[in-house]
Design goal:
91 residues, single chain, Rossmann fold, 7 strands, alpha/beta, two-stranded antiparallel sheet
Length: 91
């Protein structure tokens, strides 16, 4: 089991927070939105309890690969994005 995983928005925040946490957490920066609604479809299935379909952004595939690998090895993931529209979209 590795350290708890902390997700932040920017690499500079990841670096600063890592210093404060003293290595107790694995800190990973999402560098903005990770997913978005599909470009060709509505993105909401109104016949299936309004289920949302999202696509991983092409430039975030490596982040998702790293995130999934780290998340499988820990029992705690903390989403520490900013309390704004961007942060909520990431969370």
């Amino acid at each position: 089991m590795i350290k708890p995983l902390l997700i932040v928005e920017s690499p500079s925040k990841a670096k600063t927070i890592s210093k404060y946490l003293g290595g107790e957490y694995e800190v990973l920066a999402s560098v903005g939105h990770i997913k978005d609604l599909p470009k060709k479809d509505l993105g909401v299935d109104i016949e299936n309890d309004f289920a949302i379909t999202e696509d991983t952004l092409p430039d975030k595939k490596s982040f998702m690969k790293e995130f999934k690998a780290l998340a499988k090895k820990t029992n705690k993931v903390v989403i520490a994005t900013d309390p704004d529209r961007e942060g909520e979209a990431i969370a």
